[in-house]
């Protein structure tokens, strides 16, 4: 499959962001990129609309004040609910990946490497191997950075068509080709006899429904299911084609990059968010997993534009997927955060058409107060799903402690996610979702594999219990 | 669960260091080190349970401050129960999951002369430990809440006793029986502390 490496979709780092800038548009739809609970955030965002909106702000003030206190409570009350809403899809994705790794041997077999990681790890000395993996990781990260900057540039110069085309090609590739390979390998593992016609029919249906669900409209559950499946497929590709040390290094470096790209003032993602805010439009339909239909937020709006935005919302999740598929190991890490922020905040059109932009600006800011906080969902970038699954998958594939290590990494990632959500609720601004979870995951992986595993082994041998 | 995991990590770190610093071929020494590791791990687990209690206390204060009617949406007893279940599940999972995975594959139990009841007794032992962790959670938190140090000490002593009893494995009578007895005692104690009584139980059983 090395020839495909050129087309491997880029993934996006999902970034968990909570869009909460004070100068942010008071529009409900700001920053669809926001990953975290939009509810409280949105309410808080009800704050005086930014000047750019040109919307009346006086009446907003009072609304804002009483909203703030309610928001505090809501944040915590619904925080737990949102955490659970994110736990389920992340867990599902990881379960799918681990189940596949354990049963289908294809994904643990070494069949070559991607062109993004040209240096082999089968070297004679450890020093050489370390050097190779560092070089591999460096190449991969630079590809990602370059792609992110490219996306920022494309966005800045409003080349939306290019980006959309890119996203569509990515999702096509992922939905059809990778799932075909996956299906083939599963059949081989279980020795199921199958003819090409049936397979063609199945893949065709799967792919077309996926494209429709992701890029257009579809039932929420189906959309979520497709997003999870796509993240799992992408994660499996990474697990297969990244050699060991390279994979761990890449995970570590990407979480650092994530942190830098989102929080530094000069970071590409941050620039993207700011540009999008200036233009009052949503960012690209990045890969975002949404737990509820965001358009509910707009229900209060009689504005017909809201309806349009609503439908667009459902689509942006798809796009998020696409982006993932499209970019192989590229950039997007930071980019997707921005996107997600934008998306979440924007809840709006995926395509930044002038009408939608006008609609967004036309929305009165106090419309948000009528939103039902229960309806707001949480959003998490698909890149996050992918990297969490890569970590857990790699742990289950290559650990000597086997299930103990997998379980430990799983718990570590979930706790990291909890902490990130908590920080998001406290700081109320865009935060990267990767660093904390990946750090915990890596620490627990290496610690469990090397320290806990021999201990538990000895205990089990003597049947001692602690 | 996370706290239990961290305590396990730290205790295995200590054990690992001890093992590396000692002679690997000295069997009794290794076993002795293992026993030391187990005891240390038990103490560490209880310490982490205490830390978790502190964390939850702070969280409850925060929740109370933010709630509308001045009382928290979740009581400390519920938290104690959940904490206990979390500890128990994690400890159970770590004890059993590799066994279960191996049990799926081909093999004969005890072919080298070990006990043939290995899987069965492991399963029972794990179950009793999970229950015990749950009850200990309730007892421990109750003791911390009402400043009854003897309750906390009782929990620690019970844990040490149960772990210690497993040292007589494969003489399963010595480990399973006392553990189940202790579990029954802890269950009754926790039930009484949570506000249950013989009357409640009767009413529940007779579906009144």
UniProtKB/TrEMBL annotation, chain A:
<dbReference type="GO" id="GO:0055074">
    <property type="term" value="P:calcium ion homeostasis"/>
</dbReference>
<dbReference type="GO" id="GO:0016485">
    <property type="term" value="P:protein processing"/>
</dbReference>
<comment type="function">
    <text>Probable subunit of the gamma-secretase complex, an endoprotease complex that catalyzes the intramembrane cleavage of integral membrane proteins such as Notch receptors.</text>
</comment>
<dbReference type="GO" id="GO:0006915">
    <property type="term" value="P:apoptotic process"/>
</dbReference>
<dbReference type="InterPro" id="IPR001108">
    <property type="entry name" value="Peptidase_A22A"/>
</dbReference>
<comment type="similarity">
    <text>Belongs to the peptidase A22A family.</text>
</comment>
<feature type="transmembrane region" description="Helical">
    <location>
        <begin position="248"/>
        <end position="264"/>
    </location>
</feature>
<keyword id="KW-0966">Cell projection</keyword>
<dbReference type="GO" id="GO:0007219">
    <property type="term" value="P:Notch signaling pathway"/>
</dbReference>
<keyword id="KW-1133">Transmembrane helix</keyword>
<feature type="transmembrane region" description="Helical">
    <location>
        <begin position="226"/>
        <end position="242"/>
    </location>
</feature>
<feature type="compositionally biased region" description="Basic and acidic residues">
    <location>
        <begin position="31"/>
        <end position="46"/>
    </location>
</feature>
<keyword id="KW-0130">Cell adhesion</keyword>
<dbReference type="InterPro" id="IPR002031">
    <property type="entry name" value="Pept_A22A_PS1"/>
</dbReference>
<dbReference type="GO" id="GO:0034205">
    <property type="term" value="P:amyloid-beta formation"/>
</dbReference>
<dbReference type="GO" id="GO:0000139">
    <property type="term" value="C:Golgi membrane"/>
</dbReference>
<keyword id="KW-0812">Transmembrane</keyword>
<dbReference type="Pfam" id="PF01080">
    <property type="entry name" value="Presenilin"/>
</dbReference>
<feature type="transmembrane region" description="Helical">
    <location>
        <begin position="162"/>
        <end position="184"/>
    </location>
</feature>
<feature type="transmembrane region" description="Helical">
    <location>
        <begin position="407"/>
        <end position="427"/>
    </location>
</feature>
<dbReference type="GO" id="GO:0042500">
    <property type="term" value="F:aspartic endopeptidase activity, intramembrane cleaving"/>
</dbReference>
<protein>
    <recommendedName>
        <fullName>Presenilin</fullName>
        <ecNumber>3.4.23.-</ecNumber>
    </recommendedName>
</protein>
Automatic annotation (TrEMBL), chain B:
<keyword id="KW-0914">Notch signaling pathway</keyword>
<dbReference type="Pfam" id="PF06105">
    <property type="entry name" value="Aph-1"/>
</dbReference>
<dbReference type="GO" id="GO:0070765">
    <property type="term" value="C:gamma-secretase complex"/>
</dbReference>
<feature type="transmembrane region" description="Helical">
    <location>
        <begin position="179"/>
        <end position="198"/>
    </location>
</feature>
<comment type="function">
    <text>Potential subunit of the gamma-secretase complex, an endoprotease complex that catalyzes the intramembrane cleavage of integral proteins such as Notch receptors.</text>
</comment>
<dbReference type="GO" id="GO:0016485">
    <property type="term" value="P:protein processing"/>
</dbReference>
<keyword id="KW-1133">Transmembrane helix</keyword>
<keyword id="KW-0732">Signal</keyword>
<keyword id="KW-0472">Membrane</keyword>
<feature type="transmembrane region" description="Helical">
    <location>
        <begin position="117"/>
        <end position="140"/>
    </location>
</feature>
<feature type="transmembrane region" description="Helical">
    <location>
        <begin position="152"/>
        <end position="173"/>
    </location>
</feature>
<dbReference type="InterPro" id="IPR009294">
    <property type="entry name" value="Aph-1"/>
</dbReference>
<comment type="subunit">
    <text>Component of the gamma-secretase complex.</text>
</comment>
<feature type="transmembrane region" description="Helical">
    <location>
        <begin position="31"/>
        <end position="52"/>
    </location>
</feature>
<feature type="signal peptide">
    <location>
        <begin position="1"/>
        <end position="21"/>
    </location>
</feature>
<feature type="transmembrane region" description="Helical">
    <location>
        <begin position="79"/>
        <end position="97"/>
    </location>
</feature>
<comment type="similarity">
    <text>Belongs to the APH-1 family.</text>
</comment>
<dbReference type="GO" id="GO:0007219">
    <property type="term" value="P:Notch signaling pathway"/>
</dbReference>
<protein>
    <recommendedName>
        <fullName>Gamma-secretase subunit APH-1</fullName>
    </recommendedName>
</protein>
<keyword id="KW-0812">Transmembrane</keyword>
């Amino acid at each position: 499959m090395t020839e495909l490496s050129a087309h491997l979709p880029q993934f996006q780092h999902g970034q968990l962001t909570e869009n909460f800038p004070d100068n942010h548009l008071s529009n409900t739809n700001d920053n669809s990129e926001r990953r975290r609970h939009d509810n409280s955030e949105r309410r808080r965002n009800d704050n005086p609309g930014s000047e750019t909106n040109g919307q009346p702000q006086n009446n907003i003030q009072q609304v804002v004040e009483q909203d703030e206190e309610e928001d505090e409570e809501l944040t915590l009350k619904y925080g737990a609910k949102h955490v659970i809403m994110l736990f389920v899809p992340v867990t599902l994705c990881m379960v799918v990946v681990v189940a596949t790794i354990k049963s289908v041997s294809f994904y643990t077999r070494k069949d070559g490497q991607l062109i993004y990681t040209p240096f082999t790890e089968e070297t004679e000395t450890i020093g050489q191997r370390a050097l190779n993996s560092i070089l591999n990781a460096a190449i991969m990260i630079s590809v990602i950075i370059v792609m992110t900057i490219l996306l920022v540039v494309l966005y800045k110069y409003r080349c939306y068509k290019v980006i959309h085309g890119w996203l569509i090609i990515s999702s096509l590739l992922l939905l059809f080709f990778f799932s075909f390979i996956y299906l083939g390998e599963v059949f081989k593992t279980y020795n199921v006899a199958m003819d090409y016609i049936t397979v063609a029919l199945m893949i065709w249906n799967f792919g077309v429904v996926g494209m429709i669900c992701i890029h257009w409209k579809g039932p929420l559950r189906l959309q979520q299911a497709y997003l999870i499946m796509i993240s799992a497929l992408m994660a499996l590709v990474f697990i297969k084609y990244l050699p060991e040390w390279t994979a761990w290094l890449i995970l570590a470096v990407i979480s650092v990059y994530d942190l830098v790209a989102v929080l530094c003032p000069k970071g590409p993602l941050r620039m993207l968010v700011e540009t999008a805010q200036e233009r009052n439009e949503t960012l690209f339909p990045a890969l975002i997993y949404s737990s509820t239909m965001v358009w509910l937020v707009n229900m209060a709006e009689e504005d017909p534009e809201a309806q349009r935005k609503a439908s667009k919302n459902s689509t942006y999740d798809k796009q998020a997927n696409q982006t993932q598929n499209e970019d192989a190991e590229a950039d997007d890490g930071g980019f997707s955060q921005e996107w997600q922020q934008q998306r979440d905040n924007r809840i709006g059109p995926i395509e930044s058409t002038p009408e939608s932009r006008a609609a967004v600006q036309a929305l009165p800011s106090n419309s948000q107060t009528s939103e039902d906080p229960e309806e707001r969902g949480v959003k998490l970038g698909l890149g996050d799903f992918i990297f969490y699954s890569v970590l857990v998958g790699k742990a289950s594939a290559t650990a000597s402690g086997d299930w103990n290590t997998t379980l430990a990494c799983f718990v570590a990632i979930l706790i990291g996610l909890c902490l990130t959500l908590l920080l998001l609720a406290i700081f109320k601004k865009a935060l990267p979702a990767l660093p904390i979870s990946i750090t915990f995951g890596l620490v627990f992986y290496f610690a469990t594999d090397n320290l806990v595993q021999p201990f538990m082994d000895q205990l089990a041998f003597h049947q001692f219990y602690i | 669960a996370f706290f239990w995991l961290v305590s396990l990590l730290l205790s295995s770190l200590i054990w690992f260091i001890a093992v590396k610093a000692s002679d690997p071929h000295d069997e009794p020494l290794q076993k002795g080190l293992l026993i030391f590791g187990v005891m240390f791990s038990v103490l560490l687990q209880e310490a982490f349970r205490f830390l978790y209690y502190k964390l939850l206390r702070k969280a409850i204060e925060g929740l109370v401050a933010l709630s509308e009617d001045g009382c928290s949406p979740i009581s400390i007893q519920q938290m104690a129960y959940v904490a206990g279940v979390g500890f128990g599940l994690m400890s159970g999972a770590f004890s059993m999951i590799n066994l279960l995975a191996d049990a799926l594959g081909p093999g004969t139990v005890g072919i080298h002369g070990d006990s043939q009841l290995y899987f069965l007794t492991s399963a029972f032992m794990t179950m009793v430990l999970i229950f015990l962790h749950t009850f200990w959670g309730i007892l421990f938190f109750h003791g911390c809440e009402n400043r009854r140090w003897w309750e906390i000490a009782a929990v620690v002593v019970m844990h040490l006793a149960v772990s210690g009893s497993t040292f007589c494995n494969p003489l399963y009578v010595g480990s399973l029986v006392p553990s189940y007895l202790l579990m029954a005692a802890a269950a009754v104690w926790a039930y009484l502390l949570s506000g249950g009584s013989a009357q409640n139980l009767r009413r529940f059983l007779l579906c009144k």
